[in-house]
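As described in the Methods, two query proteins were run sequentially through the folding procedure within a single session, without resetting any intermediate state between them. The first query and its resulting structure tokens are shown here.
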Amino acid sequence: MASKYNLHAVPMGRVNANRNASNLTADARARARNRSHVATSKMRAKLSAVQVIQGDDSSWLHVIGDKIVARFASVGEAVAAL
């Protein structure tokens, strides 16, 4: 029996480069880099305040200050959520 393939679920043809990317000005690229840097810095600042500790019931917790903000079953899940 021949295999059937769903032709609508797979990409068809060649992948083309984004031809509109060269239309951006140097100023627009600089603003985009700056937005990305600011967002990354804010995220790192938030994550630096998070502590991963083990609770009394053997669960792993994300703690900021004195507040528990998340609870995980394993340390791997807790670290991956950072």
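Immediately afterward, the second query was submitted; its sequence and tokens are:
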Amino acid sequence: MDALLKSFSLSFLLRSAFAGAFFVLAYYLATNGTCEAIDLGSENVFSLGLVIALVVGATVYGIHRSLIFPWFEWLLNSDLARKIRGKWFPLISENTLKDVVRRWDSTSEKEHQRRNRTDHITAWADYIHFQYASAWCTFLGAATGVIVSGRCPPPHWGWITLLVMAFFIAASVSAWRARSVEEYCETLQCVT
């Protein structure tokens, strides 16, 4: 158990708590603050709300990474997707690709550039998965609020739907762009 607890970095816990906060917010909006099943008043919003946000955020993140994202990854890494990104639709200009990699490379010695690029791509992936987890948490918070309160559609359903879509689209665009940068870095490895 100690090894498991030590594997949770502070940045992971913060990302999980922030993603889970969207669960709490969507739940609150879906019940319009009137549901007694989980009383999130001003006196306990931080104590109870933070615990719920952290547990839900970490759980959703884990399920997303292990069950859902592998399907997205399969599509992103398919030969067709690589061809589309490479020739027609990278969602990032060649000049931006060069600038990003140049900035990454300027922060490390020549022999550490590959590792530095990997670290930057990993950090980028953390943000991508944070956005996906936030979308899932928002959706699940609203769905839980609907089930518990019996209100269908929930109050503010338009804003909830827009927020889920915005997170999902932002994460997908960012994942596509990150793959474009990774593929560009692969071509540089062949040259250097």
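The chain has a mean pLDDT of 86. We note this only descriptively and draw no conclusion about the first query from it.
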